[in-house]
C-alpha cells in the first residue's frame, strides 16, 4: 500500500489540502469550503476529498503524516470578544499587582494620539489579579521565601470564582523558576480543574510585562485548543502534527501544552512553502504575499530563510515567542467595500468570510467585496474550484451598480477603485515588512499565492516597482504544501545579561537548553537531532537587542569574537550605524537561545515539460482592464515550460486566477512558476 503525507491549512474562507505520495512523488491538491462553526468539519472533508482524488487508497491508514495549520487557538483573542478571557486569572509577585495596568505606557501612532487614546481593557482585570509573597533576585537567589499559605488561599479563591485558566509570572523567575513551580503544585492540589501556564515554561526571558502577557495568552487559549485538538483526534482516530509560528511543527499531543506557539501557523507555512518553491526556481530572496479570503499575509525571505522576530503580537497583546516575521492586513477576496461617513470609498478590514461570503456566492451576502469587483470586471471566471462553486455574476453586478450609484461613479470606475484600494492596502503591508526593516522592496521579486494573491500581481508590480511577480503552481495551496516542507522545531531561551561573559557559564546554559531540546525531540520520535544556537546582544545602555546566529561547537574566545562581529554587522545593517571599533560602547549579552530541530524529507518540486509552440487559449470573454474588450483565456495546466502569455489575458486554474494586464507578460519557468513582468520599452 502507498504511504502518503497530507497537509491541511484551515483558512477563513477555504480549507486547503495537499497530498504527497512518498513512493511516486505525486502531489495532489484540492480545496473545500471552511466551516467556521466547527473547523474540524472542513478539515475532515478536505482529508477525505484528497484521498479520493489520489485513488487506490483505503483511507486514513495509508497516511504516514498529517500536518495541520490552524489559528483556532488565537481566534478569540484576534476577534477581541469580551468573553474571550472571562475565565482567565493571574498570579504574580506581592507588590506587582498592577504590572498589567502599567504595561509599557506606549501610545499607538505616536504622541499625536496621546490626548485621545484610551487604554484598552487589560487581558486580566485587576480584580482577578492575585499576588503571593516570595522573591528571587535577578541572579536567581531567594530573597524572601515562598508564602505557601497565601498561595493556597489564592488557589481556593480562583476555584470559588470559577476562574479555570491561570497564568503565573513571578519576578525574576527566568533566573530561578522554583517559586512558580511550587505555585503550580499548590494550584494542582487546591484547584485541580484549572489549566495553568508558568512564565518559566512559556518564555524564560526577562521583561516582566511581555513575559506576563505572553504567559496569559498561552493560558487563555489552552482550553479552546485542547477541546479542538481532542475533538479532531477523536474524529480522526489517530494523531497529527500542528504547524508552529516559528517555522516548525509539533505533535498535537505536545501542542496542547504550549498552544501560543501556533499563532500565525497557517501564514508561517505559506512563507516556508513559497521560500522552498522560489529557491528551487533560483530566487533565494523574495517577498511572499499570501492572499486569502479574509486577509493578506506578507513576509520577507532572505537566502531561503523567512525572517524571524520575537517582537510579534496577537491582536493587541505583545507576545515574545519566536515567530516568522509576518505582517497581516485585512485585504482579502472577501474584504467588504463600504462608504465612510465622509463619503469616501473604503475596502476592509471587515470581511464577508466564508459564510455568507461575497454577493456572487449566492449565499445571502449583501455587501460588495473585492471578489465581486473581480467578477464584475470579468477577471475571475463565473465559477470557482473548476466549476464546483458557481458564481452569481448578476448579483455581483447589481451590488457594484448600487454602490457606484451612491458614490456617483460608473460601475467600472467603482469596481476598479475597489481593486486599487485593495492593492494599496497590500502594498502598505509589503512596505512595513521591507522599507521599515531597512530593505529596498525593488531588490526582491514577489511570490504571490493564496486564492486571491495573484489577482493584483500586475498592479503591485507597478505600485511598488517590483522586479517581477512569481505565481507558483496551485497558488491556492502553497500554505498547505508548506506544511509538508517543515521540520519539527522547538525553541528555548535563557536570559543571561552580562558585559563580561564567562564562556564556561554560557556553555553550561547552552548545554541545559540543548538537553531540553533533545528531550522534546525524543518524545517526538526523532533519533537525529540538530541544534541551532543564537544570542541576543545590544550596546550597553540600549533598551532592546539584536538576535544573531551563534555557531555550535566549543565556546572559545574566537567563537565569542565571531558572535560579536555578527552583532556589529547586523546592527549596522538594521539601523545604519554600529560601534565595531569603538571600545567606549561595550557589547552586552542578554539572551541565549537554542532551537531543537528534527529534520524531515522535503517533497521534491517537479520540472515542467517544455512547450515548443505558442500557447493556445481555451476561449475568450469580455474583460475590463482599461476598457471592455474581448480577451483571451488560458488554462494553466495546458502551458509548458517556456510558454509566454502577453496581456491583456487571463490565466485560470483550479484554485486561483491570474489576470495579465496590458503591457505585461507571464512566462512559465522550468518548475511551472509563472513569472509576471512589465514588458520592456
TrEMBL record:
Record-annotated Hydantoinase/oxoprolinase N-terminal domain positions: 5-189
Any one GO molecular function term: 5-oxoprolinase (ATP-hydrolyzing) activity
Domain Acetophenone carboxylase-like C-terminal: 503-674
Organism superkingdom: Bacteria
Transmembrane segments: none
Domain annotation Hydantoinase A/oxoprolinase: ranges: 211-491
InterPro entries for the chain: ACX-like_C, ATPase_NBD, Hydant_A_N, Hydantoinase_A, Oxoprolinase-like
GO terms, biological process: glutathione metabolic process
Alphabetical list of SUPFAM superfamilies matching this protein: Actin-like ATPase domain
Gene Ontology CC terms: cytosol
PANTHER family membership: 5-OXOPROLINASE RELATED, HYPOTHETICAL 5-OXOPROLINASE (EUROFUNG)-RELATED
Protein name: 5-oxoprolinase
Species of provenance: Acrocarpospora phusangensis
Lineage, top ranks: Bacteria, Bacillati, Actinomycetota, Actinomycetes, Streptosporangiales
